[in-house]
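Hi R.,

Here's the chain you asked about this morning:
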Amino acid sequence: MINTIEKTEGLIYLEDGTVLKGRGFGFKGTAVGELVFNTAMTGYQEILTDPSYKGQIINMTYPLIGNYGISEIDNESEKIHAFGLVVKDLCDTPSNSNSVMTIDKWLRDMEVPGVYGVDTRQITKKIRSKGTVKCVISTEGISISEAAGICDKAQLRGDWMKEVAVKEKTVLEPLADQLLPGSEGEPFDVAVIDFGVKGNILTCLRRRNCRLTVYPYGTPAANILASDPDGIFLTNGPGDPEEAVEAIEEVRNLIRLSEIPMFGICMGHQILAIALGGKTYKLKYGHRGGNHGVFDKNTKRSYITSQNHGYAVQYESIILKGMEITHLNLNDGTVEGMEHRDLPIFSVQFHPEASPGPNDTGYLFDKFTGMMKEDRENA
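And here is the predicted structure, written out as tokens:
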């Protein structure tokens, strides 16, 4: 399966002293980050370009990566945000009509190191047992002692949202030639508060006739409300939600100053919870993949969802703050969704836009536009 990759040594060093040696691919360099695992069977391109993976090294549990190459249509942002990639078997002869390059070349171009030929199952079991760990990944022949020194000195950041969010206000028009049935008419003006948004979230909203104004991290609530939006959307993003101090304060102001429909996903869900007086906590090893079961208490149905988060909302902290829990994780019972008892506010921890993963919960975008439609009709 591997024909053209330059043979270099690949090294993985974990903060507990574990050393794994394999082969390097992609960029010849060294990176340090939080080692996490993802259980998706497809979608490595979307995963690597998801801004929520900023600062992390991804261990893919599916054994074969690269078999359908890299396309020009599957990115979730303009670049790879993950700091490194670990896989068992690497394919350098992709078979896909949309492929324009191999994953090896792509990682080289994006200056991201990768290691293959290691036991990814062993790594996953260690993370599940010990929790996410600090990790050094190198493809440039550094020694184990050098890797240990890099690991010891590195401090993992939790405030990546400021770095990955847009720097200037951006307006995106509805996708008029791709509107979903029933989405015709006057567009909804939606203020998108960016913490590191995935491209397909924006697409899902634009296909539902939403005109989006994407605001940088920390934009004052008064500036956002001055544009008189029909709805407010809080995006996904990387890092620790409790470090998003400015964002939490402005979301709190948005809730205090208006009763505009509000929808949050992933990081947006967590920041909303904190803004309302709730708490979040770090999961032992997080939820990352396209096969996570979630129970919707409103519809009494279970759905398979796409997820990528390392933190969760504390159940007890939010139910006393005017919120009802709407979704629960079927694996560990953690909070996956909530809605306000009195205000048009709701959020989910998982990713209804998928990319990659199932589209079972796309109805949540329809719920958001339905709330905006009702609000407009009652105005």
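One quick note: The domain at 8-153 is CATH 3.50.30.20 (Glucose Oxidase; domain 1).

Cheers,
M.
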